[in-house]
Amino acid sequence: MSRREQYACTVARDDDGRVLSVEIVAADLEGNERSVQIRGLAASRVAGAVHDVLRAGGVRGRTWTSSKPIDLDQVTGAQLELLLQAAKPLRRGDRIDRVSEGVAQMSREEAAYWHAKSGHSGGLPALRMLLIGGHR
Predict the structure, then answer these.
(1) Has this prediction a pTM greater than 0.85?
(2) Among 2, 1, 4, 3, which Cα is nearest to 74's?
């Protein structure tokens, strides 16, 4: 059995079903955990892109609407972690939209490449610049 990073995604919603927060928790090969969470307006802005990544990863609609953590395969989890990491520091809605949609539209290979780069200095800013197009 091969060891892999493990990922779980939790989507919190209000009583009307609106997304309040999206969190991904990852456990690396040594068992160390890391997490990224987006809340509030930014969470509602990335919700569509998150849903696209989950659907592409084989997560069914009923699972997506549950409040229980969703266990993800390594590739889907890494892409979702990348999406949240890239969008989290952004404040402008148009930039959140472009970055989250750009990550959601990446091939699994491209997302894996950028996920690996995100751990290095300058990786996430370079990704944001690529997806936003250098607009200020």
Answers:
(1) yes
(2) 4
- Is residue 106 within 8 Å of residue 114, measured between CB atoms? yes
How far apart, in whole angstroms, are the C-alpha atoms of residue 111 and residue 117?
A: 10
Using alpha carbons, select from 86, 72, 58 the residue that is nearest to residue 11: 72
Average pLDDT for 64-89: 93
What is the rounded CA–CA span in Å between residue 92 and residue 29? Answer: 35
User: In terms of residues, how long is the chain?
Assistant: 136
* Strand boundaries in the chain, DSSP class E: 6-13, 19-27, 33-39, 70-72
Q: Calculate mean pLDDT across residues 118-124.
A: 92
Q: Under a CB-based contact definition with an 8 Å cutoff, are residues 49 and 70 in contact?
A: no
C-alpha radius of gyration, the chain, whole number: 14
* pLDDT tens digits along 3-56: 678 999 999 999 999 999 999 999 988 889 999 999 999 999 999 999 999 999
Residue 91 backbone phi and psi in degrees, to 5: -115, -35
